[in-house]
Amino acid sequence: MACEWSTVMAAFRSMVGSHDRLQPAAVRALYHANLACAVVAGLALAGCLAALGYVVWKFERRRHNLLALHNLRSIVLLAALVVCIGEIGHQWLAVDRLGRVRAGCAARAGTERPEVHSTQSEAFTADGEADAVAWATVTVGLGAAWLGLCVHLGLAWLVRTIERRDMCGLLYAVLAAEGAQSIVRWCKFKYINDVTDTGSRETGLRPPAGGSILGTPEVFLTLAGALAATALTVVDGFTLYVE
């Protein structure tokens, strides 16, 4: 076998930051979590752009004062954008590193052509599938990070348009999009914690001395993104209540 799954998996787990605590069997479910984030962000972005086009086309500017908590929302939005940029950077590094590992495996596969028996062939096929899942996980994660950034920017533009045209009722749509973002991020955060806890129990491993799962890039950024999305939801919900 030219390149074992453990080599690719080691690179992936290193970028995730869980090392020995994230089991290979959980990577497929993590891919589904990233895919859910991407789908929710894509739907929210599409709805945001549709609502934005409707407001701009249907209503004229008629409001001169700002919405309640305008400044607070700007601060929370800035924090959310910083988190999104951090997620993009982390996922980009993961894609780049795993891509180089896969390229090295492909190069060795082209030069080494050992005779493979049936059992070895089955193992090679399984390793190839696992490799594909790991690659899909990081690429979908990168796409979800970009979509998350676009959603925050689109919702900020929509809120500003609502503010200028005095259409506060459309804040319900903003709350729905932000609430969906918050829920899917909290679900991903809980899943990663559950996976690492399960992995520790099954293998009998303990976290490294002085280390914490909250100190890993993947989980820290997911938690920060969930907190930012929740804070935006709370601020816009209170704004809708006041208005």
Automatic annotation (TrEMBL):
Keywords: Membrane, Transmembrane, Transmembrane helix. The chain crosses the membrane at residues 31-55, 75-93, 132-159. This is Uncharacterized protein. It comes from Anopheles dirus.
